[in-house]
Design goal:
single chain; alpha+beta; five-stranded antiparallel β-sheet; four-stranded antiparallel β-sheet; 3 helices; 12 strands; 40% strand
């Protein structure tokens, strides 16, 4: 037996419910805690900037999938899998053609990447930023010394969370750097 991560395919929207159900089955000893070691729903934090307000929300980056860490035995694996298949919303394991097949684990590199992206393990976690504006859009400055000025977005710097705008000051086009939350889309 060896510890591996498996991907359980589910109905979209059932991921959290299935995670709770599996944890409940392990706690009530219906599933062996020496076999089902961990379960995670892959989510990531997304920062959205809209109308000058920054919002952070969690979003599934693999909707319809749940990661299960198992130490699947050579004998008796069918019983464990049958209990997982009986959970409402579970359709099977990724990589299995039928329910009679032994589940195939994902590689340790794939598991590490998924866990890192969801923040479950330490490391360089990418953050996604979704903006309500793009290069060429006209925006209105709502904070700072240039409140009320309009400008055209010339450059977006995601790392610094800054925009370079072209603003008309005294009849001349001038570049101005502002934060994402200092502007609203016109």
């Amino acid at each position: 037996m060896s510890r591996n991560w498996y991907i359980l395919h589910t109905y979209t929207g059932y991921e959290a419910k299935i995670e709770r159900t599996v944890r409940s089955l392990v706690e009530s000893n219906d599933l062996d805690s020496n076999i089902i070691l961990d379960i995670k729903v892959p989510v990531e934090e997304i920062t959205e900037v809209k109308d000058g307000k920054k919002k952070v929300r969690k979003d599934y980056f693999l909707p319809g999938y749940v990661m299960v860490e198992m130490d699947l035995p050579e004998l008796g694996w069918k019983d464990v899998c049958a209990k997982l298949y009986r959970i409402q919303g579970v359709t099977g394991f990724v990589g299995c053609v039928s329910r009679k097949d032994r589940p195939i684990p994902i590689s340790s590199t794939e598991a590490k990447n998924l866990l890192q992206r969801s923040g479950a393990i330490k490391g360089e976690k990418p953050t996604l930023t979704r903006l309500s504006f793009s290069v060429g859009d006209t925006v209105k400055i709502n904070d700072g010394p240039f409140v009320g000025f309009n400008g055209v977005v010339k450059e977006i710097n995601l790392e610094k969370e800054k925009l370079t705008l072209e603003v008309q000051i005294f009849g001349r086009a001038s570049p101005l750097e502002v934060g994402f939350t200092q502007v609203k889309k016109e």
